[in-house]
Amino acid sequence: MSAHTPRPETMSSLVETDQRSREIFRQIVDGYLTTGEPVGSRNIARLLPMSLSPATVRNVMTDLELAGLIYAPHTSAGRLPTERGLRFFVDAMMEVGNLTSEERKRIEAQIRAGATHRNLDQTLTEASTLLSGLSRGAGVVVTTKADVRLKHIEFVRLDPLRALVVLVSEDGTVENRLLALPPGLPASALMEAANFLNARILGKTLADLRGEIAGQRALMERELDVLTARLVESGIATQAGPGNDRHLIVRGQANLLEDLKAQEDLERIRLLFGDLETQTDVIDLLTRAEQGDGVRIFIGSENKLFSMSGSSMVAAPFRDAEQRIVGVVGIIGPTRLNYARIVPMVDYTAKVVGRLLDGER
């Protein structure tokens, strides 16, 4: 999309105080969100609640274009909203719809079905799949691995100088981390270190466990030899790697291949698929949605990740039993997402996931 720079005073006078301009702008945006096609002055004149000639509509469209809210993709008379225009519409003009009771029941039932075994991954995968199906976009979820409560830890030797730290969480997820071993470590040390940690691990996060072990250093040094004590500290200090303390789930990318209207649409989707493969960037963007309550909307080149593919994301954070934000659910799709419908959908899904994490059944 074109990105004109509007004059603030022009935007204010045209769209905030001029009812004609507001209605014409709304028709252009509505047409784009519905069909993806440019809207011409004759069609707009027929759809307006007031009586205006196509010539008058064209004059207003020229002013809206000067304000940077719309642009002409071709030399035809039809206009599309710019990304800046979409942002203005979303922030100042959009009327967010309410979910029906049936939609709420469907969201609740489907996510609860995924939570029957208290498996967080399964619950979040169900949430991602659900959002994808309801929106015909790609459903995305990101959550923090570091805050999961642990049930068990094991050390599995790979060779004399390397072992896997196997972390089993209360929700059933398993994570493996690579650990360097000190030279000359006996096999019995791996078992002793695991026993020492498992006696203290139940229901704690890795951060909790690190704090407890740090406070029990004297006890650990009495119970364990120097190499085993070092192994205990190393085992709970291992990091998953840059960006990997976040877990990303994406479902429904195939939906994005539907309703392609032109070769440029196919190229845009190809670029978006490339963006989704770059998981760290997607996680970084979703993490921005954690900065405050409520739904966040990211449109096109407002963020670096979608600058080439011209895509949008609607996302909302969810909280655990301690009311800490521990993840984000969202939808990624073209900039012509049905924002008014998707915003309450994402918001309600985030609330349902949060209630399940809070133990409410």
Concise account of the structure shown:
With 361 residues, the protein is an alpha+beta fold.
Beta-strand content bin:
15-25%
Quantity of strands, as a count = 10
Mean pLDDT across all amino acids = 81
Question: Largest beta sheet: what is the strand line-up?
Answer: 7-3-10-9-8
SSE-based structural type: alpha+beta
What does the largest sheet look like? 5 strands, antiparallel
Low-confidence stretches: 1-7
Q: What count of helical segments does DSSP give?
A: 14
Question: Measured on Cα atoms, how large is the radius of gyration?
Answer: 26 Å
SSE order, as H and E? HHHHEEHHHEEEEHHHHEHHEEEH
First and last CA, distance: 45 Å
Helix content: 40-55%
Overall body shape: elongated
Tell me what the structure shows.
- By secondary structure, this protein is of the alpha+beta class.
- The protein is 48% helix and 18% strand.
- The chain contains 14 helices and ten strands.
- The strands form three sheets. The chain has a five-stranded antiparallel beta sheet, sandwiched between helices. A three-stranded antiparallel beta sheet has the order 4-5-6, with helices on one face.
- Strand 1 and strand 2 form a beta hairpin.
